[in-house]
Amino acid sequence: MAAQDHRPNRLSLIGWALTFLPLGLLGIILAALFLLASLTTLLWVGFPLLVGATTLIRRYANYQRTLLTPFLTTPVPTPYRPLPTALDSRTIAIARDPATWRDLAWLLLNATLGTILLLASLVLLLIWPTTPPFIHTYARLNRLLLAPTTNADLTARITHLAATRTDATRTQASEVRRIERDLHDGAQARLVALGMSLGMAEQMLTTNPAAAQKLLTEARDSTRQALTEIRDLVRGIHPPVLVERGLPGAVHALAIAQQLPIDVDIDLPGRPDDPVESAAYFAIAEILTNTAKHANATRAWVRINYGLGRMVIVAGDNGHGGATPATGTGLTGVQRRLAAFDGTMTLLSPPAGPTIITMELPCALSSPKTSPSSATD
Amino acid sequence: MRVVIAEDLALLRDGLIRLLDAHDFTVVAAVDTGPDLLHALLHHRPDVAVVDVRLPPTHTDEGLKAAIAARQRVPGLPVLVLSQHVEQLYARELLSGGQGGVGYLLKDRVFDINQFIEAIRRVAAGGTAMDPEVIAQLLAKHTPESPLGALTAREREVLGEMAEGRSNSAIATRLFITDKAVSKHINNIFAKLSLPPSPDDSRRVMAVLTYLND
Fold first, then answer.
1. What is the ipTM of this complex?
2. Where does the Response regulatory domain start and stop, copy by copy (chain B) (predicted)?
3. Which structural domains are found in chain B, ordered by start?
4. What is the b/e burial string over A231-260, where b = at least 16 CB atoms within 10 angstroms of the residue's CB?
5. Do A228 and B137 touch (CB under 8 A)?
6. Do B89 and A259 lie within an 8 Å CB cutoff?
Protein backbone atom coordinates (compact mmCIF):
# COMPACT_ATOMS: atom_id res chain seq x y z
CA MET A 1 0.00 0.00 0.00
CA ALA A 2 2.57 2.50 1.14
CA ALA A 3 4.79 1.73 -1.83
CA GLN A 4 1.86 2.27 -4.18
CA ASP A 5 1.10 5.64 -2.55
CA HIS A 6 4.68 6.68 -3.10
CA ARG A 7 4.93 5.75 -6.72
CA PRO A 8 2.87 8.51 -8.31
CA ASN A 9 4.50 10.99 -5.99
CA ARG A 10 7.92 9.75 -7.01
CA LEU A 11 6.92 9.73 -10.62
CA SER A 12 5.68 13.30 -10.45
CA LEU A 13 8.90 14.33 -8.71
CA ILE A 14 10.85 12.85 -11.60
CA GLY A 15 8.60 14.82 -13.92
CA TRP A 16 9.30 18.02 -11.99
CA ALA A 17 13.06 17.43 -12.03
CA LEU A 18 12.87 16.88 -15.78
CA THR A 19 10.99 20.19 -16.12
CA PHE A 20 13.39 22.21 -13.96
CA LEU A 21 16.52 20.82 -15.65
CA PRO A 22 16.10 22.25 -19.17
CA LEU A 23 14.58 25.44 -17.74
CA GLY A 24 17.71 25.99 -15.65
CA LEU A 25 19.92 25.48 -18.67
CA LEU A 26 17.79 27.90 -20.69
CA GLY A 27 18.67 30.45 -17.99
CA ILE A 28 22.28 30.42 -19.21
CA ILE A 29 21.14 31.86 -22.54
CA LEU A 30 19.17 34.60 -20.79
CA ALA A 31 22.10 35.45 -18.54
CA ALA A 32 24.37 35.67 -21.58
CA LEU A 33 21.84 37.88 -23.34
CA PHE A 34 21.70 40.17 -20.34
CA LEU A 35 25.47 40.47 -20.05
CA LEU A 36 25.75 41.20 -23.76
CA ALA A 37 23.08 43.88 -23.47
CA SER A 38 24.87 45.42 -20.49
CA LEU A 39 28.06 45.68 -22.53
CA THR A 40 26.27 47.38 -25.44
CA THR A 41 24.75 50.05 -23.16
CA LEU A 42 27.93 51.98 -23.96
CA LEU A 43 26.18 52.52 -27.28
CA TRP A 44 22.56 53.74 -27.29
CA VAL A 45 21.27 50.46 -28.79
CA GLY A 46 22.04 48.71 -25.49
CA PHE A 47 19.22 50.54 -23.70
CA PRO A 48 16.30 48.82 -25.46
CA LEU A 49 18.28 45.57 -25.49
CA LEU A 50 18.79 45.68 -21.74
CA VAL A 51 15.11 46.53 -21.10
CA GLY A 52 14.06 43.68 -23.41
CA ALA A 53 16.43 41.17 -21.79
CA THR A 54 15.24 42.19 -18.31
CA THR A 55 11.60 41.81 -19.29
CA LEU A 56 12.34 38.30 -20.57
CA ILE A 57 14.30 37.38 -17.44
CA ARG A 58 11.58 38.69 -15.14
CA ARG A 59 8.89 36.73 -16.95
CA TYR A 60 11.03 33.65 -16.84
CA ALA A 61 11.80 34.15 -13.11
CA ASN A 62 8.11 34.75 -12.35
CA TYR A 63 7.27 31.51 -14.12
CA GLN A 64 9.83 29.72 -11.96
CA ARG A 65 8.30 31.37 -8.86
CA THR A 66 4.90 29.88 -9.64
CA LEU A 67 6.40 26.48 -10.48
CA LEU A 68 8.14 26.39 -7.08
CA THR A 69 4.98 27.00 -5.04
CA PRO A 70 4.04 23.30 -4.52
CA PHE A 71 7.43 22.63 -2.90
CA LEU A 72 7.35 25.55 -0.48
CA THR A 73 5.05 26.45 2.39
CA THR A 74 4.20 29.87 0.94
CA PRO A 75 4.35 31.24 -2.61
CA VAL A 76 7.46 33.24 -3.56
CA PRO A 77 6.54 36.96 -3.76
CA THR A 78 7.73 39.14 -6.65
CA PRO A 79 10.54 41.51 -5.59
CA TYR A 80 10.57 44.06 -8.46
CA ARG A 81 10.17 47.78 -7.92
CA PRO A 82 7.74 49.61 -10.18
CA LEU A 83 9.41 50.87 -13.39
CA PRO A 84 9.06 54.26 -15.07
CA THR A 85 7.99 54.31 -18.74
CA ALA A 86 10.67 56.52 -20.33
CA LEU A 87 13.42 54.35 -21.82
CA ASP A 88 16.49 55.90 -20.22
CA SER A 89 15.02 56.27 -16.72
CA ARG A 90 13.66 52.74 -17.08
CA THR A 91 17.13 51.39 -17.87
CA ILE A 92 18.58 53.21 -14.86
CA ALA A 93 15.80 51.95 -12.59
CA ILE A 94 16.49 48.39 -13.78
CA ALA A 95 20.19 48.76 -13.04
CA ARG A 96 19.47 50.20 -9.59
CA ASP A 97 16.95 47.53 -8.58
CA PRO A 98 18.83 44.91 -6.50
CA ALA A 99 16.31 42.35 -7.75
CA THR A 100 17.90 42.62 -11.24
CA TRP A 101 21.26 41.49 -9.94
CA ARG A 102 19.79 38.85 -7.66
CA ASP A 103 17.97 37.48 -10.72
CA LEU A 104 21.27 37.32 -12.61
CA ALA A 105 22.98 35.55 -9.71
CA TRP A 106 20.04 33.16 -9.60
CA LEU A 107 20.28 32.42 -13.35
CA LEU A 108 23.94 31.47 -12.99
CA LEU A 109 23.53 29.52 -9.76
CA ASN A 110 20.44 27.75 -11.03
CA ALA A 111 22.23 26.65 -14.20
CA THR A 112 25.19 25.24 -12.25
CA LEU A 113 24.51 24.19 -8.67
CA GLY A 114 20.81 23.79 -9.48
CA THR A 115 21.56 21.41 -12.32
CA ILE A 116 23.85 19.33 -10.11
CA LEU A 117 21.17 19.12 -7.41
CA LEU A 118 18.50 18.13 -9.90
CA LEU A 119 20.69 15.50 -11.55
CA ALA A 120 21.56 14.05 -8.14
CA SER A 121 17.91 13.96 -7.14
CA LEU A 122 16.96 12.34 -10.46
CA VAL A 123 19.55 9.60 -10.03
CA LEU A 124 18.49 8.95 -6.44
CA LEU A 125 14.82 8.95 -7.35
CA LEU A 126 15.45 6.39 -10.08
CA ILE A 127 17.66 3.97 -8.12
CA TRP A 128 16.70 4.35 -4.44
CA PRO A 129 12.96 4.78 -3.78
CA THR A 130 13.17 5.83 -0.11
CA THR A 131 15.70 8.65 -0.42
CA PRO A 132 14.18 12.05 0.34
CA PRO A 133 14.41 13.92 -2.93
CA PHE A 134 16.77 16.86 -3.28
CA ILE A 135 14.11 18.75 -5.11
CA HIS A 136 12.89 20.53 -1.94
CA THR A 137 16.42 21.73 -1.23
CA TYR A 138 16.51 22.93 -4.82
CA ALA A 139 13.29 24.88 -4.27
CA ARG A 140 14.57 26.49 -1.06
CA LEU A 141 17.84 27.43 -2.75
CA ASN A 142 15.86 29.09 -5.54
CA ARG A 143 13.75 30.92 -3.00
CA LEU A 144 16.83 32.46 -1.40
CA LEU A 145 17.51 34.51 -4.50
CA LEU A 146 14.05 34.81 -6.04
CA ALA A 147 12.17 36.17 -3.01
CA PRO A 148 12.43 39.86 -2.13
CA THR A 149 15.07 40.80 0.44
CA THR A 150 13.89 42.13 3.82
CA ASN A 151 14.89 45.52 2.53
CA ALA A 152 12.64 45.25 -0.51
CA ASP A 153 9.80 44.00 1.70
CA LEU A 154 10.21 47.01 3.96
CA THR A 155 10.34 49.39 1.01
CA ALA A 156 7.05 48.00 -0.29
CA ARG A 157 5.53 48.27 3.18
CA ILE A 158 6.63 51.89 3.53
CA THR A 159 5.05 52.76 0.19
CA HIS A 160 1.79 51.17 1.33
CA LEU A 161 1.89 52.90 4.72
CA ALA A 162 2.64 56.28 3.19
CA ALA A 163 -0.35 55.93 0.85
CA THR A 164 -2.79 54.82 3.55
CA ARG A 165 -1.51 57.46 5.96
CA THR A 166 -2.12 60.21 3.43
CA ASP A 167 -5.62 58.85 2.90
CA ALA A 168 -6.30 58.62 6.62
CA THR A 169 -5.08 62.12 7.45
CA ARG A 170 -6.98 63.57 4.52
CA THR A 171 -10.20 61.83 5.55
CA GLN A 172 -9.72 62.97 9.13
CA ALA A 173 -9.05 66.56 8.11
CA SER A 174 -12.21 66.72 6.02
CA GLU A 175 -14.19 65.17 8.88
CA VAL A 176 -12.90 67.80 11.29
CA ARG A 177 -13.78 70.52 8.77
CA ARG A 178 -17.31 69.14 8.44
CA ILE A 179 -17.75 69.04 12.22
CA GLU A 180 -16.49 72.62 12.55
CA ARG A 181 -18.90 73.80 9.87
CA ASP A 182 -21.84 71.92 11.37
CA LEU A 183 -21.17 73.38 14.83
CA HIS A 184 -20.62 76.85 13.46
CA ASP A 185 -23.74 76.98 11.31
CA GLY A 186 -25.87 74.85 13.62
CA ALA A 187 -25.60 74.67 17.36
CA GLN A 188 -23.46 77.80 17.76
CA ALA A 189 -25.87 79.93 15.72
CA ARG A 190 -28.83 78.54 17.67
CA LEU A 191 -27.17 79.38 20.99
CA VAL A 192 -26.60 82.95 19.81
CA ALA A 193 -30.28 83.21 18.87
CA LEU A 194 -31.17 81.72 22.25
CA GLY A 195 -29.08 84.29 24.09
CA MET A 196 -30.73 87.08 22.11
CA SER A 197 -34.24 85.82 22.89
CA LEU A 198 -33.38 85.55 26.59
CA GLY A 199 -31.85 89.03 26.67
CA MET A 200 -34.88 90.59 25.03
CA ALA A 201 -37.24 88.63 27.28
CA GLU A 202 -35.37 89.98 30.30
CA GLN A 203 -35.88 93.55 29.08
CA MET A 204 -39.58 93.06 28.39
CA LEU A 205 -40.36 91.09 31.54
CA THR A 206 -41.94 94.05 33.33
CA THR A 207 -43.02 96.22 30.39
CA ASN A 208 -44.54 93.57 28.13
CA PRO A 209 -44.94 90.18 29.90
CA ALA A 210 -46.90 88.66 27.01
CA ALA A 211 -44.11 89.35 24.51
CA ALA A 212 -41.53 88.15 27.03
CA GLN A 213 -43.34 84.84 27.36
CA LYS A 214 -43.40 84.42 23.60
CA LEU A 215 -39.64 85.02 23.48
CA LEU A 216 -39.06 82.48 26.24
CA THR A 217 -40.99 79.85 24.29
CA GLU A 218 -38.86 80.64 21.27
CA ALA A 219 -35.74 80.27 23.40
CA ARG A 220 -36.88 76.83 24.52
CA ASP A 221 -37.49 75.70 20.95
CA SER A 222 -34.11 77.02 19.92
CA THR A 223 -32.46 75.02 22.70
CA ARG A 224 -34.24 71.88 21.61
CA GLN A 225 -33.17 72.33 18.00
CA ALA A 226 -29.55 72.94 19.06
CA LEU A 227 -29.67 69.71 21.06
CA THR A 228 -31.08 67.78 18.11
CA GLU A 229 -28.32 69.08 15.85
CA ILE A 230 -25.60 68.23 18.35
CA ARG A 231 -27.12 64.79 18.82
CA ASP A 232 -27.02 64.10 15.08
CA LEU A 233 -23.46 65.36 14.92
CA VAL A 234 -22.37 63.11 17.80
CA ARG A 235 -23.98 60.14 16.11
CA GLY A 236 -21.86 60.82 13.04
CA ILE A 237 -18.64 61.21 15.02
CA HIS A 238 -18.96 58.35 17.46
CA PRO A 239 -22.40 56.83 18.08
CA PRO A 240 -23.22 56.72 21.82
CA VAL A 241 -24.57 53.19 21.51
CA LEU A 242 -21.10 52.08 20.35
CA VAL A 243 -19.58 53.54 23.52
CA GLU A 244 -22.25 51.96 25.67
CA ARG A 245 -22.58 48.54 24.10
CA GLY A 246 -19.52 47.98 21.94
CA LEU A 247 -19.71 46.62 18.40
CA PRO A 248 -22.21 43.80 19.07
CA GLY A 249 -24.79 46.09 20.70
CA ALA A 250 -24.27 48.85 18.16
CA VAL A 251 -24.72 46.48 15.21
CA HIS A 252 -27.86 45.05 16.82
CA ALA A 253 -29.15 48.60 17.24
CA LEU A 254 -28.39 49.30 13.57
CA ALA A 255 -30.16 46.13 12.50
CA ILE A 256 -33.28 46.84 14.56
CA ALA A 257 -33.61 50.28 13.03
CA GLN A 258 -33.80 48.89 9.49
CA GLN A 259 -37.04 48.00 7.73
CA LEU A 260 -35.38 44.92 6.30
CA PRO A 261 -35.13 41.89 8.58
CA ILE A 262 -31.44 41.56 9.37
CA ASP A 263 -29.92 38.50 10.94
CA VAL A 264 -27.03 39.43 13.23
CA ASP A 265 -24.58 36.89 14.53
CA ILE A 266 -21.55 38.17 16.43
CA ASP A 267 -18.92 36.13 18.17
CA LEU A 268 -16.18 38.39 19.53
CA PRO A 269 -14.22 37.23 22.58
CA GLY A 270 -13.33 40.84 23.51
CA ARG A 271 -13.35 44.45 22.34
CA PRO A 272 -11.07 45.83 19.62
CA ASP A 273 -9.44 49.24 20.04
CA ASP A 274 -11.79 52.24 19.68
CA PRO A 275 -10.56 53.29 16.19
CA VAL A 276 -10.95 49.76 14.79
CA GLU A 277 -14.35 49.38 16.43
CA SER A 278 -15.48 52.67 14.97
CA ALA A 279 -14.16 51.85 11.48
CA ALA A 280 -15.95 48.50 11.58
CA TYR A 281 -19.18 50.12 12.79
CA PHE A 282 -19.26 52.79 10.09
CA ALA A 283 -18.36 50.22 7.42
CA ILE A 284 -21.30 48.04 8.47
CA ALA A 285 -23.61 51.05 8.71
CA GLU A 286 -22.64 52.10 5.18
CA ILE A 287 -23.20 48.61 3.81
CA LEU A 288 -26.61 48.25 5.48
CA THR A 289 -27.64 51.66 4.14
CA ASN A 290 -26.55 50.57 0.66
CA THR A 291 -28.51 47.36 0.98
CA ALA A 292 -31.64 49.25 2.02
CA LYS A 293 -31.27 51.79 -0.79
CA HIS A 294 -30.06 49.80 -3.77
CA ALA A 295 -30.24 46.05 -3.32
CA ASN A 296 -34.01 45.52 -3.39
CA ALA A 297 -33.46 42.68 -0.93
CA THR A 298 -35.97 40.95 1.34
CA ARG A 299 -33.40 39.96 3.91
CA ALA A 300 -29.84 40.60 4.92
CA TRP A 301 -27.32 39.34 7.45
CA VAL A 302 -24.17 40.38 9.27
CA ARG A 303 -21.71 37.96 10.86
CA ILE A 304 -18.65 38.95 12.86
CA ASN A 305 -16.00 36.51 13.97
CA TYR A 306 -12.46 36.68 15.23
CA GLY A 307 -9.52 34.40 14.58
CA LEU A 308 -5.80 34.41 13.74
CA GLY A 309 -5.49 38.01 14.86
CA ARG A 310 -8.18 39.26 12.46
CA MET A 311 -11.74 40.38 12.85
CA VAL A 312 -13.78 39.08 9.93
CA ILE A 313 -17.05 40.76 9.05
CA VAL A 314 -19.27 39.23 6.43
CA ALA A 315 -22.38 41.10 5.32
CA GLY A 316 -24.77 39.84 2.68
CA ASP A 317 -28.23 40.25 1.21
CA ASN A 318 -30.49 38.38 -1.18
CA GLY A 319 -31.01 41.40 -3.44
CA HIS A 320 -30.37 41.80 -7.15
CA GLY A 321 -26.57 42.15 -6.87
CA GLY A 322 -24.52 44.09 -9.38
CA ALA A 323 -22.90 46.33 -6.75
CA THR A 324 -19.47 47.70 -7.61
CA PRO A 325 -17.23 50.10 -5.70
CA ALA A 326 -17.21 52.20 -8.88
CA THR A 327 -20.95 53.01 -8.77
CA GLY A 328 -20.28 55.57 -6.08
CA THR A 329 -22.15 53.77 -3.34
CA GLY A 330 -19.66 54.59 -0.65
CA LEU A 331 -17.89 51.26 -0.89
CA THR A 332 -14.67 52.98 -1.96
CA GLY A 333 -14.89 55.04 1.21
CA VAL A 334 -15.32 51.86 3.25
CA GLN A 335 -12.31 50.33 1.53
CA ARG A 336 -10.25 53.42 2.32
CA ARG A 337 -11.35 53.56 5.92
CA LEU A 338 -10.33 49.93 6.41
CA ALA A 339 -7.01 50.31 4.58
CA ALA A 340 -5.82 52.65 7.33
CA PHE A 341 -5.86 49.60 9.61
CA ASP A 342 -4.43 47.23 6.97
CA GLY A 343 -7.97 45.97 6.57
CA THR A 344 -9.38 44.69 3.31
CA MET A 345 -12.78 44.49 1.70
CA THR A 346 -13.82 42.08 -0.99
CA LEU A 347 -17.08 42.42 -2.82
CA LEU A 348 -18.93 39.60 -4.48
CA SER A 349 -22.01 40.80 -6.28
CA PRO A 350 -22.92 38.99 -9.51
CA PRO A 351 -25.67 40.63 -11.62
CA ALA A 352 -28.44 38.35 -10.32
CA GLY A 353 -27.29 38.54 -6.70
CA PRO A 354 -26.71 37.78 -3.94
CA THR A 355 -24.24 40.37 -2.65
CA ILE A 356 -21.63 39.25 -0.16
CA ILE A 357 -19.09 41.65 1.29
CA THR A 358 -16.20 40.31 3.34
CA MET A 359 -14.08 42.63 5.44
CA GLU A 360 -10.97 41.66 7.32
CA LEU A 361 -9.40 43.85 9.98
CA PRO A 362 -6.19 42.78 11.70
CA CYS A 363 -6.55 43.78 15.36
CA ALA A 364 -6.05 42.68 18.93
CA LEU A 365 -8.98 42.23 21.30
CA SER A 366 -9.00 43.34 24.91
CA SER A 367 -11.02 41.54 27.53
CA PRO A 368 -14.61 42.81 27.51
CA LYS A 369 -15.00 46.20 29.22
CA THR A 370 -18.63 45.73 30.09
CA SER A 371 -20.11 42.72 31.79
CA PRO A 372 -21.74 40.43 29.23
CA SER A 373 -25.31 41.60 28.89
CA SER A 374 -28.10 39.19 28.22
CA ALA A 375 -28.52 38.97 24.47
CA THR A 376 -31.97 40.27 23.80
CA ASP A 377 -32.09 39.95 20.07
CA MET B 1 -44.66 60.77 45.92
CA ARG B 2 -41.21 59.30 46.70
CA VAL B 3 -38.60 59.52 43.95
CA VAL B 4 -35.07 58.19 43.42
CA ILE B 5 -32.88 60.19 41.01
CA ALA B 6 -29.79 58.85 39.27
CA GLU B 7 -27.74 61.43 37.36
CA ASP B 8 -23.98 61.88 37.49
CA LEU B 9 -23.79 65.49 36.27
CA ALA B 10 -24.32 67.71 39.34
CA LEU B 11 -25.83 70.50 37.26
CA LEU B 12 -28.58 68.29 35.89
CA ARG B 13 -29.06 66.39 39.15
CA ASP B 14 -29.65 69.60 41.11
CA GLY B 15 -31.97 70.87 38.39
CA LEU B 16 -34.05 67.69 38.55
CA ILE B 17 -34.22 67.81 42.35
CA ARG B 18 -35.38 71.42 42.24
CA LEU B 19 -37.95 70.65 39.56
CA LEU B 20 -39.37 67.64 41.40
CA ASP B 21 -39.39 69.40 44.78
CA ALA B 22 -41.44 72.18 43.23
CA HIS B 23 -44.03 69.65 42.07
CA ASP B 24 -44.63 67.91 45.38
CA PHE B 25 -42.31 64.97 44.90
CA THR B 26 -40.04 63.85 47.71
CA VAL B 27 -36.57 62.97 46.51
CA VAL B 28 -35.55 60.14 48.83
CA ALA B 29 -32.19 59.51 47.15
CA ALA B 30 -30.11 61.19 44.45
CA VAL B 31 -27.28 58.90 43.36
CA ASP B 32 -24.59 59.14 40.69
CA THR B 33 -23.39 55.59 39.96
CA GLY B 34 -24.93 52.37 38.68
CA PRO B 35 -24.29 50.25 41.78
CA ASP B 36 -25.64 53.03 44.07
CA LEU B 37 -28.74 53.23 41.92
CA LEU B 38 -29.46 49.50 42.16
CA HIS B 39 -28.99 49.68 45.91
CA ALA B 40 -31.22 52.77 46.26
CA LEU B 41 -33.97 51.21 44.13
CA LEU B 42 -34.03 48.00 46.13
CA HIS B 43 -33.62 49.71 49.50
CA HIS B 44 -36.05 52.63 49.11
CA ARG B 45 -38.55 50.98 46.76
CA PRO B 46 -39.56 54.46 45.48
CA ASP B 47 -42.90 55.26 43.84
CA VAL B 48 -40.91 56.17 40.75
CA ALA B 49 -37.23 56.56 39.70
CA VAL B 50 -35.77 59.02 37.20
CA VAL B 51 -32.62 57.47 35.75
CA ASP B 52 -29.89 58.60 33.36
CA VAL B 53 -28.75 55.83 30.98
CA ARG B 54 -25.06 56.65 31.20
CA LEU B 55 -23.54 56.54 34.68
CA PRO B 56 -20.14 55.89 36.27
CA PRO B 57 -18.09 53.83 36.89
CA THR B 58 -17.98 52.55 33.29
CA HIS B 59 -19.80 55.52 31.72
CA THR B 60 -21.63 53.11 29.47
CA ASP B 61 -25.23 52.06 30.08
CA GLU B 62 -24.90 51.43 33.84
CA GLY B 63 -28.13 53.31 34.60
CA LEU B 64 -30.20 51.32 32.14
CA LYS B 65 -28.70 48.03 33.32
CA ALA B 66 -29.35 48.87 36.99
CA ALA B 67 -32.95 49.86 36.18
CA ILE B 68 -33.56 46.62 34.28
CA ALA B 69 -31.92 44.56 37.04
CA ALA B 70 -34.07 46.24 39.70
CA ARG B 71 -37.22 45.62 37.68
CA GLN B 72 -36.30 41.98 37.34
CA ARG B 73 -36.20 41.68 41.13
CA VAL B 74 -39.19 43.96 41.76
CA PRO B 75 -41.49 43.48 38.76
CA GLY B 76 -43.24 46.66 37.71
CA LEU B 77 -40.98 48.96 39.78
CA PRO B 78 -41.70 52.28 38.03
CA VAL B 79 -38.64 53.68 36.23
CA LEU B 80 -38.38 56.61 33.85
CA VAL B 81 -35.12 56.45 31.88
CA LEU B 82 -33.65 59.65 30.47
CA SER B 83 -30.94 59.87 27.81
CA GLN B 84 -29.17 62.23 25.43
CA HIS B 85 -30.11 59.86 22.62
CA VAL B 86 -32.77 57.21 22.17
CA GLU B 87 -32.18 53.72 20.82
CA GLN B 88 -34.87 51.29 19.80
CA LEU B 89 -32.65 48.58 21.22
CA TYR B 90 -32.93 50.09 24.71
CA ALA B 91 -36.65 50.71 24.39
CA ARG B 92 -37.08 47.08 23.50
CA GLU B 93 -35.05 45.95 26.50
CA LEU B 94 -37.04 48.16 28.87
CA LEU B 95 -40.33 46.86 27.51
CA SER B 96 -39.28 43.23 27.17
CA GLY B 97 -40.60 42.24 30.60
CA GLY B 98 -44.10 43.08 29.39
CA GLN B 99 -44.60 45.10 32.60
CA GLY B 100 -45.85 48.66 32.63
CA GLY B 101 -44.46 51.40 34.83
CA VAL B 102 -41.71 52.24 32.43
CA GLY B 103 -40.65 55.33 30.53
CA TYR B 104 -37.88 56.23 28.10
CA LEU B 105 -37.46 59.87 27.13
CA LEU B 106 -34.90 62.20 25.62
CA LYS B 107 -33.49 64.63 28.17
CA ASP B 108 -34.90 67.51 26.07
CA ARG B 109 -38.40 66.52 27.13
CA VAL B 110 -37.66 68.03 30.54
CA PHE B 111 -38.06 71.45 28.87
CA ASP B 112 -41.81 70.97 28.70
CA ILE B 113 -42.23 70.79 32.43
CA ASN B 114 -45.93 70.04 32.55
CA GLN B 115 -45.64 67.17 30.12
CA PHE B 116 -42.55 65.85 31.86
CA ILE B 117 -44.25 65.85 35.27
CA GLU B 118 -47.28 64.20 33.70
CA ALA B 119 -45.01 61.51 32.21
CA ILE B 120 -43.46 60.81 35.63
CA ARG B 121 -46.88 60.51 37.23
CA ARG B 122 -48.04 58.22 34.44
CA VAL B 123 -45.07 55.90 34.89
CA ALA B 124 -45.55 55.94 38.68
CA ALA B 125 -49.15 54.84 38.11
CA GLY B 126 -48.00 51.84 36.08
CA GLY B 127 -48.38 53.43 32.66
CA THR B 128 -45.73 54.10 30.02
CA ALA B 129 -44.00 57.16 28.57
CA MET B 130 -42.14 56.50 25.34
CA ASP B 131 -40.31 59.26 23.52
CA PRO B 132 -42.02 60.45 20.32
CA GLU B 133 -38.72 59.79 18.54
CA VAL B 134 -38.77 56.11 19.54
CA ILE B 135 -42.36 55.83 18.34
CA ALA B 136 -41.55 57.63 15.08
CA GLN B 137 -38.68 55.19 14.44
CA LEU B 138 -40.93 52.23 15.20
CA LEU B 139 -43.65 53.51 12.88
CA ALA B 140 -41.09 54.20 10.13
CA LYS B 141 -39.95 50.57 10.25
CA HIS B 142 -43.29 49.31 9.00
CA THR B 143 -43.60 49.29 5.23
CA PRO B 144 -46.71 50.72 3.54
CA GLU B 145 -47.73 47.13 2.68
CA SER B 146 -47.95 46.17 6.37
CA PRO B 147 -51.29 46.42 8.21
CA LEU B 148 -50.18 49.86 9.42
CA GLY B 149 -50.52 51.05 5.83
CA ALA B 150 -54.29 50.52 6.12
CA LEU B 151 -54.61 53.15 8.88
CA THR B 152 -55.95 56.60 8.04
CA ALA B 153 -53.74 59.61 8.78
CA ARG B 154 -55.84 60.39 11.87
CA GLU B 155 -55.68 56.80 13.11
CA ARG B 156 -51.91 56.85 12.69
CA GLU B 157 -51.78 60.02 14.75
CA VAL B 158 -53.89 58.44 17.49
CA LEU B 159 -51.71 55.31 17.35
CA GLY B 160 -48.58 57.43 17.83
CA GLU B 161 -50.09 59.27 20.80
CA MET B 162 -51.25 56.01 22.34
CA ALA B 163 -47.85 54.37 21.83
CA GLU B 164 -46.20 57.26 23.65
CA GLY B 165 -48.35 56.18 26.59
CA ARG B 166 -51.15 58.75 26.71
CA SER B 167 -54.61 58.00 28.07
CA ASN B 168 -57.70 58.43 25.89
CA SER B 169 -58.64 61.73 27.47
CA ALA B 170 -55.07 63.07 27.10
CA ILE B 171 -55.12 62.10 23.42
CA ALA B 172 -58.51 63.80 23.02
CA THR B 173 -57.15 67.03 24.53
CA ARG B 174 -54.00 67.00 22.42
CA LEU B 175 -55.75 66.29 19.12
CA PHE B 176 -58.73 68.56 19.87
CA ILE B 177 -61.28 65.75 19.45
CA THR B 178 -63.80 64.18 21.79
CA ASP B 179 -63.12 61.16 24.02
CA LYS B 180 -65.72 59.30 22.02
CA ALA B 181 -63.92 59.98 18.75
CA VAL B 182 -60.66 58.73 20.28
CA SER B 183 -62.34 55.49 21.38
CA LYS B 184 -63.72 55.02 17.91
CA HIS B 185 -60.29 55.52 16.32
CA ILE B 186 -58.71 53.10 18.78
CA ASN B 187 -61.34 50.44 18.03
CA ASN B 188 -60.61 50.84 14.32
CA ILE B 189 -56.86 50.62 14.89
CA PHE B 190 -57.17 47.45 16.96
CA ALA B 191 -59.44 45.88 14.35
CA LYS B 192 -57.10 46.75 11.47
CA LEU B 193 -54.06 45.42 13.31
CA SER B 194 -56.00 42.34 14.50
CA LEU B 195 -55.19 43.07 18.15
CA PRO B 196 -57.55 41.84 20.87
CA PRO B 197 -59.48 44.82 22.33
CA SER B 198 -58.91 45.66 25.98
CA PRO B 199 -60.75 48.10 28.22
CA ASP B 200 -57.57 48.87 30.20
CA ASP B 201 -55.54 51.88 29.00
CA SER B 202 -52.08 50.64 29.92
CA ARG B 203 -52.68 47.14 28.63
CA ARG B 204 -53.73 48.59 25.29
CA VAL B 205 -50.53 50.61 25.17
CA MET B 206 -48.41 47.53 25.84
CA ALA B 207 -50.25 45.62 23.10
CA VAL B 208 -49.54 48.41 20.63
CA LEU B 209 -45.85 48.66 21.62
CA THR B 210 -45.39 44.92 21.36
CA TYR B 211 -46.99 45.02 17.93
CA LEU B 212 -44.76 47.86 16.74
CA ASN B 213 -41.63 46.26 18.17
CA ASP B 214 -42.05 43.02 16.25
1. 0.87
2. 2-122
3. 2-130 (3.40.50.2300), 142-213 (1.10.10.10)
4. beeeeeeebbbbbbbbbbbbbbbbbbbeeb
5. no
6. no
